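tool=predict chain=A
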Amino acid sequence: MIANVTLCRVATMKNAKYLAKLFVRDTSGATAIEYGLIAAAMGLMLIPVMFSLSTTVKTSLFDVMLGLFPS
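tool=predict ok
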C-alpha cells in the first residue's frame, strides 16, 4: 500500500512539473493581454481629451438649440 502512495506522489510531481513547463511555454493568451493593455492605454489617453472638449461641445449644442427655438 505504501508503494502505491509513493508512486502516486511521484507521478503527481512529474505531472505538476510538466504542467508548469507547458504553462511557461504557452503564449496563446499573450495577444489578448496585449490588446487589453492597448485598449486601457487608449482609454486613459481619451479622458483628458474628452474633458477639454466637453465645454466646447456643450456651448455649441446650446447655441444650436437656441437657434432652433427662438424666443
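The mean pLDDT is 79. The helical segments are 2-25, 30-68.
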